[in-house]
Backbone:
């Protein structure tokens, strides 16, 4: 059977992230992607048995020091940057890097965040940032840095 190309594997990873939702750790996404690629490429029974044993391995640690990528986009309006960064500060999240672009009436931002000092779980950070985004009519996507890197690996 032919090998999958990078675009096909990336699409599988995107679908895995959607399927896993709040459980989308790097290890979980890698496992789901590997299983899908295995099914598509027809790997043998030995590999299938090895992956069956891997189901009992605990997921990637989401402990303190976890970095996340926040991406937001939508129509530009006053106070977006202040709203997003104020909520991150309230969550005790440190902004490591930030890139923002306003193209005519459209706003885009990507923020690298260290959530290591936050007392709030990743899922709550994701939900609270999505609510802030909704208040500005933005689409906000929050991902673990590992997931982001896995999806965009060359």
Residues:
């Amino acid at each position: 059977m032919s090998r999958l190309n990078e675009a096909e594997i990336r699409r599988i990873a995107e679908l895995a992230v959607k399927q896993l939702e709040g459980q989308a750790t790097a290890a979980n996404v890698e496992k789901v992607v590997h299983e899908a690629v295995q099914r598509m490429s027809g790997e043998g029974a030995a590999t299938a048995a090895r992956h069956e044993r891997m189901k009992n391995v605990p997921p990637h640690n989401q402990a303190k020091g976890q970095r996340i990528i926040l991406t937001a986009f939508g129509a530009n309006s006053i106070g977006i940057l202040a709203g997003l960064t104020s909520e991150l500060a309230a969550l005790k999240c440190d902004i490591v890097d930030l890139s923002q672009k306003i193209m005519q009436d459209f706003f885009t931002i990507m923020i690298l965040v260290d959530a290591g000092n936050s007392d709030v779980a990743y899922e709550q950070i994701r939900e609270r940032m999505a609510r802030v985004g909704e208040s500005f009519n933005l689409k906000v996507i929050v991902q673990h840095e590992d997931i982001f890197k896995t999806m965009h690996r060359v």
